[in-house]
């Protein structure tokens, strides 16, 4: 039996705060049901990856991003075929099995063909629940892009007012924006500590912090993060064996056990651009302008601060962003996590691979599925990747430096 | 004299190779098993040692690889089959740039750099399409020995088609073709084409390059190698013992590992002995041996990725 | 219900030894379309030699605009479909896979991106790498390099992302124009096919973009846009479309004189052939043949016993095969979403004098750009119009846009009309995904269910 040395992690140094966050991340529906019971409030389900939750919050609703369920897909099999990404299949399944009953309305802004297939299942299964699509333009740099998004913010405002039964006041939007910016800022502080390697935090734990922010009452989330941050100093600062960047995986979180398997196989993530990671928190909403304009601007800014394959923008490149990131963090390889059947990532991956290989940065692509983690196969790939990263060329007449020495000297 | 041992514990066979200090293989063994088995490993190791007239005391370093690499208690370290097949194939055919390994459990395409080191790799996904399992499915459905499939396919006269997307589904397809009175030879050839096309896809992921060799048991299936060669439009180099490539690679990595721990003088002496012996393993075809020539493999040092507790 | 008329059985053509007789009877007039399309591509392949500017585009039928601007136009999906129909998709797909595209990606996209990779590579490089076979290269590498790209993809998000990648394969050195086509979500009480506030408002946004597109083209071609030519093109398209729809309507007759497969063969002409008198003549020819068949009592399938609707995009590798396969079971595939709810299917919307609005509207009624409510409306209407007994859902492995609503539509058709259906897996341009077993067993099971349904009645 093999085992890696267990380093102290958030669950050890801030057990109480982390447990609350982890619980919401692991059981989002249970959290929302409980929240409704306690507050009598209404929950609005939003879908990844670009919905401005601040607007729903300002409408007096509790916005929560609908998550992929951990339960096996049953009835959903008869509604969306198996060749859809795990997130859309899970959403369809949850709609069919009643798991989404906790939501009082649904809203989305992203045009993804598979997601829309899942939303049609939601509409069909829950015909009485309001379901609004404010389709934000995905071509980001056309002369009409900004105007189109601004129009959709207005349409969204009208829809949300209809759902909540009250007008959305600009001051409320500003207050919501400030809250969510605060939450993002706190999360970025934690991510930065990992990035500059002043602390070592398992990727699966960081994911719990992000995922809980998608589900929890935002003020509670801020309170818990503030309780947790002072404990960061107690975490280990040991240099990781092989620092890598985790890239890809939109919409749904990578299974925590997969992240653990990867990090147990000889690498540690020092940075990422995952949606359930840095991508979610990379961009704040401007606070010094009209709040409705600011939300439209936030959407346009997001693809610049963390470029995404789901958006089309001629002057922004995910590959450049990734390479710049590697230079900053010192990550020596990239692991691309691809939800099987995710078309935007399938389309962009060759460009990422090409750019990385041109710079001799090793890249490993791992496909993920809803149905479990093939741990042994993943371990083999990651170990081979580490072997690839670590092999050195003992050229004749040259000093014989081992990979371990190189790492030690790093 | 010290030796090192490589053990490759696959899903259906255990292989062991012993190499001498100069890197030359001294002995090898292949043991068929029903499933991953520690006993199989023990038998393979014992056979290899006996064959080489050695005892366990002669082995200074052991590296395990393969699907069951963690089960090899004797091993000092373990490495993935990717690194080991790459290392073994380069040793067996110096200058090779692409290694295709089709095993019982999965299949891999491994690109080797100009320096003889692992560059890129691709492994088939979790489904068994394009693996050796496909041939097991075929032999079961056709009620012939898996070793006879190659000859059977060579006798094809008409074109049949199987989709090849899934090993389980392929069985249904094969049975259906039999029900339609399609000749077993034509079905076998169709399965060859299907597995080969999956393999071409795998190769595409690491990009085609030459020279190319196949390792693993399926490399002994001449009809399949011919079909794959046709689809790739490349000739595929022949290895006498493609099944032991992983174990040989493991043994050579064990040798590198051991050498990295011995004093410099001793290491230099061993290297000098190796060069004088003209060992085929480390000297390269078409290489004049001049420093800086990038055509040949060079000793590699790998860091451990697995810590044993 | 359709009018029922007495027709004599179609002549059953004997086939080779060991093969079942072919009970299908395809239109002969569509062969002219085959030649028209073949000539069109041959012409495209020489565009550079003729000093023409070439636009690569995907999605909507913008070709009347390109034609008016004097450009040569290459429709990406159309070229992928053509390669697949000629069983020559292999090298492009391998080039795509070698470049890194996973085989679960839209096979139109990866075939076309493979072509882009091949086109972009120098001729010398074509001799190395996986795509080394001279015969395979023949077609895939003939596409002339683009001078610029235009994307106008409705319904499928992959469509827009695909061209963003083609743009990158060509090193980001060529201009690209995106027309963004919003989904017709159809969730309001007043929403429906061609009605409601959403329908009235959305095309206006598209019209404004088309105006910008024309300015962009003027800049690329360095000459003023010929609006008269556009009007003329649209008048030809309007007439061709009217003839196509009139001919399709004649197929409400049972047994049907023409099938879905004939309409599939007519997709290329209506979708991207030059708008001219030849196009009108083609559809006049098709309509004439169908009328003649009705007069002569000739049916498209010998002994039609079942009338089936085909939902899903075409499996281009299998056109002839599927035509025979369905006919073998006395099934007439009478209509389909891909053929009947696409391709200038509402000609009354086209005003040749003021063509942009009608064009924008057509780009939005692409059959993958509707929400579920409108899809249901369209499906039930087609089933009623053509007296449909059953539905074949082509669960199209790499085309989620077409596959999206299918399983719900199957339930709706059963609930609201008692229409049975089955689903089989295949793909637009990747034959590896086609599973004959699921088609055969699903089709037979559906027909048996229909038999039992009829026995009860």
UniProtKB/TrEMBL annotation, chain A:
Native species of this protein? Brevibacterium sandarakinum
User: In the UniProt record, does the keyword Acetylation occur?
Assistant: no
Q: Which family does it belong to?
A: Belongs to the FldB/FldC dehydratase alpha/beta subunit family.
Q: What lineage does UniProt assign to this protein's organism? A: Bacteria, Bacillati, Actinomycetota, Actinomycetes, Micrococcales
Query: In its keyword annotation, does this UniProt entry include Iron-sulfur?
Result: yes
Report keywords, A-Z. Answer: Iron, Iron-sulfur, Metal-binding
Superkingdom, according to UniProt? Bacteria
Report what the protein is called. Answer: 2-hydroxyglutaryl-CoA dehydratase, D-component
Q: Which GO terms describe its molecular function?
A: hydro-lyase activity; iron-sulfur cluster binding; metal ion binding
InterPro entries listed in its UniProt record? FldB/FldC_alpha/beta
| Annotated Pfam families | HGD-D
From TrEMBL, chain B:
Q: Where does the record place the ATPase BadF/BadG/BcrA/BcrD type domain?
A: 5-254
Q: Which Pfam families does this entry report, sorted A to Z?
A: BcrAD_BadFG (PF01869)
Which Gene Ontology terms cover its molecular function? Answer: iron-sulfur cluster binding; metal ion binding
Compositionally biased intervals (Basic and acidic residues): 267-276
Domain of life per record: Bacteria
Q: Which Gene3D superfamilies match?
A: 3.30.420.40
Q: Which PANTHER family match?
A: BIFUNCTIONAL PROTEIN [INCLUDES 2-HYDROXYACYL-COA DEHYDRATASE (N-TER) AND ITS ACTIVATOR DOMAIN (C_TERM), BIFUNCTIONAL PROTEIN [INCLUDES 2-HYDROXYACYL-COA DEHYDRATASE (N-TER) AND ITS ACTIVATOR DOMAIN (C_TERM)-RELATED
NCBIfam families, A to Z: CoA_E_activ
Its protein name is CoA-substrate-specific enzyme activase, putative
Lineage from the top down? Answer: Bacteria, Bacillati, Actinomycetota, Actinomycetes, Micrococcales
UniProtKB/TrEMBL annotation, chain C:
| Family matches, as Gene3D superfamilies | 3.40.50.11900
Query: Which keywords describe this protein according to UniProt?
Result: Iron, Iron-sulfur, Metal-binding
Pfam families tied to this protein:
HGD-D
**UniProt KW Cell membrane keyword:** no
Q: Name one GO molecular function term.
A: iron-sulfur cluster binding
Q: Where is the composition biased (Basic and acidic residues)?
A: 15-25
Instruction: Give me the ranges of the annotated region Disordered.
Output: 1-31
Instruction: Tell me yes or no: is ATP-binding among this UniProt entry's keywords.
Output: no
Q: Which family does it belong to?
A: Belongs to the FldB/FldC dehydratase alpha/beta subunit family.
What's the protein name? Answer: 2-hydroxyglutaryl-CoA dehydratase, D-component
């Amino acid at each position: 039996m093999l085992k890696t040395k267990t380093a102290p992690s958030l669950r050890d140094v801030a057990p109480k705060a982390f447990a609350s966050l982890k619980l919401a991340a692991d059981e989002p529906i249970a959290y929302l049901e409980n929240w409704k019971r306690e507050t009598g409030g209404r929950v609005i389900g939003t879908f990844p990856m670009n919905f401005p939750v601040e607007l729903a919050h300002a409408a007096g609703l509790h916005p929560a991003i609908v998550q992929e369920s951990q339960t096996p897909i049953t009835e959903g099999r008869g509604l969306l075929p198996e060749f859809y990404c795990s997130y859309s299949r899970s959403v369809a399944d949850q709609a069919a099995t009643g798991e989404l009953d906790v939501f009082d309305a649904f809203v989305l802004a992203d045009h993804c063909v598979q997601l829309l297939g899942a939303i049609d299942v939601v509409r069909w299964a829950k015909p009485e629940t309001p379901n609004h699509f404010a389709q934000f333009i995905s071509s980001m740099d056309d002369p009409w892009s900004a105007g189109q998004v601004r129009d959709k913010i207005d349409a969204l405002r009208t829809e949300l007012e209809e759902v909540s039964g009250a007008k959305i006041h600009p001051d409320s939007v500003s207050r919501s924006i400030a809250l969510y910016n605060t939450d993002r800022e706190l999360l970025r502080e934690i991510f930065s500590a990992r990035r500059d390697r002043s602390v070592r935090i398992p990727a699966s734990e960081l994911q719990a912090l992000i995922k809980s922010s998608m589900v929890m009452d935002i003020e509670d989330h801020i309170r818990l993060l503030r309780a947790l941050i002072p404990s960061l100093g107690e975490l280990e600062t040991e240099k990781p064996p092989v620092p890598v960047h985790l890239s890809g995986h939109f919409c749904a979180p990578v299974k925590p056990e997969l992240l653990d398997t990867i990090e147990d196989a000889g690498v540690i993530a020092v940075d990422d651009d995952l949606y359930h990671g840095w991508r979610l928190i990379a961009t704040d909403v401007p606070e010094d302008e009209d709040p409705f304009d600011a939300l439209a601007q936030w959407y346009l800014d997001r693809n610049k601060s963390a470029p995404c394959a789901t958006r089309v923008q001629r002057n922004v490149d995910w590959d450049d962003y990734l390479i710049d990131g590697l230079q900053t963090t010192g990550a020596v390889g990239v692991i691309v996590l691809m939800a099987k059947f995710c078309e935007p990532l399938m389309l962009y991956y060759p460009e990422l691979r090409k750019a990385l290989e041109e710079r001799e940065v090793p890249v490993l692509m791992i496909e993920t599925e809803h149905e479990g983690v093939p741990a042994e196969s993943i371990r083999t790939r990651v170990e081979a990747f580490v072997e690839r990263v670590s092999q050195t060329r003992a050229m004749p007449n040259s000093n014989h430096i081992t990979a371990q020495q190189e790492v030690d000297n790093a | 004299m010290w030796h090192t041992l490589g053990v490759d514990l696959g899903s259906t066979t255990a292989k062991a190779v012993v190499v001498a200090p100069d890197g030359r293989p001294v002995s090898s063994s292949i043991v068929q098993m029903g499933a991953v088995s520690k006993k199989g490993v023990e038998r393979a190791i014992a056979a290899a040692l006996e064959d080489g007239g050695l005892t366990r005391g002669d082995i200074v370093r052991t590296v395990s690889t393969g699907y069951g690499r963690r089960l090899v208690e004797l091993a000092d370290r373990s490495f993935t089959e990717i690194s080991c097949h790459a290392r073994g194939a380069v040793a067996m055919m110096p200058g090779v740039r692409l290694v295709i390994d089709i095993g019982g459990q999965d299949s891999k395409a491994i690109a080797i750099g100009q320096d003889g080191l692992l560059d890129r790799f691709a492994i088939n996904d979790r489904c068994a399409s394009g693996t050796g399992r496909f041939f097991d499915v075929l032999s079961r459905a056709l009620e012939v020995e898996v070793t006879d499939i190659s000859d059977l396919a060579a006798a094809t006269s008409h074109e049949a088609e199987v989709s090849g997307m899934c090993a389980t589904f392929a069985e249904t397809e094969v049975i259906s073709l039999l029900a339609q009175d399609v000749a077993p030879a034509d079905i076998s050839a169709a399965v060859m084409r299907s597995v080969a096309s999956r393999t071409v896809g795998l190769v595409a992921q690491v990009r085609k390059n030459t020279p190319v060799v196949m390792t693993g048991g399926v490399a002994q299936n001449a009809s399949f190698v011919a079909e794959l060669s046709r689809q790739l439009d490349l000739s595929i180099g022949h290895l006498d013992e493609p099944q032991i490539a992983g174990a040989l690679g493991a043994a050579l990595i064990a040798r590198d590992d051991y050498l990295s721990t011995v004093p410099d003088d001793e290491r230099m002496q061993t290297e000098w002995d190796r060069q004088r012996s003209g060992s085929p393993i480390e000297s390269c075809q078409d290489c004049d041996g001049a420093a800086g020539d990038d055509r040949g493999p060079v000793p590699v040092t790998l860091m451990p990725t697995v810590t044993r507790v | 219900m359709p009018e029922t008329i007495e027709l004599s059985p179609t002549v059953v053509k004997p086939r080779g030894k060991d093969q079942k007789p072919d009970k299908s009877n395809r239109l002969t007039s569509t062969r002219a379309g085959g030649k028209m399309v073949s000539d069109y591509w041959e012409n495209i392949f020489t565009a550079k030699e003729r000093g023409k500017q070439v636009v690569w585009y995907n999605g909507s039928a913008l070709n009347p605009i390109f034609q008016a601007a004097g450009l040569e136009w290459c429709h990406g999906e159309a070229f992928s479909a053509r390669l697949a129909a000629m069983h020559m998709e292999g090298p492009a797909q391998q080039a795509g896979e070698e470049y890194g595209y996973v085989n679960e990606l839209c096979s139109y996209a990866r075939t076309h991106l493979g072509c882009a990779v091949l086109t972009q590579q120098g001729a010398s490089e074509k001799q190395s790498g996986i795509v080394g076979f001279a015969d395979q290269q023949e077609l895939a590498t003939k596409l002339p390099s683009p001078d610029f790209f235009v994307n106008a993809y409705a319904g499928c998000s992959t469509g827009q992302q695909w061209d963003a990648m083609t743009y990158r394969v060509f090193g980001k050195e060529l201009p690209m124009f995106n027309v963004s086509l919003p989904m017709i979500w159809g969730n309001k009480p007043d929403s429906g096919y061609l009605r409601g506030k959403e329908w009235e408002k959305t095309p206006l946004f598209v019209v404004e973009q088309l105006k910008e597109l024309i300015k962009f083209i003027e800049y690329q071609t360095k000459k003023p846009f010929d609006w008269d030519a556009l009007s003329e093109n649209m008048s030809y398209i309007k007439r061709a479309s009217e003839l196509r729809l009139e001919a399709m309507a004649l197929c409400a007759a049972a047994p049907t004189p023409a099938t879905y497969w004939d309409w599939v063969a007519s997709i290329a002409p209506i979708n991207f052939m030059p708008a001219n008198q030849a196009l009108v003549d083609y559809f006049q020819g098709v309509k004439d043949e169908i009328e003649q068949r009705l007069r002569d009592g000739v049916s498209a399938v010998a002994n039609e016993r079942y009338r089936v609707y085909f939902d899903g995009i075409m499996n281009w590798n299998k056109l002839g095969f599927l035509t025979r396969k369905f006919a073998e079971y006395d099934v007439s595939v009478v209509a389909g979403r891909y053929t009947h709810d696409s391709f200038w299917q509402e000609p009354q919307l086209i005003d040749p004098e003021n063509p942009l609005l009608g064009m924008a509207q057509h780009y939005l009624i692409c059959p993958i750009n509707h929400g579920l409510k409108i899809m249901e409306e369209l499906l039930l209407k087609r089933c009623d119009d053509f007296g449909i007994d059953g539905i074949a859902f082509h669960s199209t492995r790499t085309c989620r846009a077409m596959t999206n609503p299918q399983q719900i539509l199957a339930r709706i058709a059963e609930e609201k009309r008692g229409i049975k259906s089955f689903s089989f897996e295949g793909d637009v341009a990747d034959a590896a995904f086609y599973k004959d077993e699921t088609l055969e067993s699903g089709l037979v099971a559906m027909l048996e269910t229909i038999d039992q349904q009829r026995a009860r009645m």
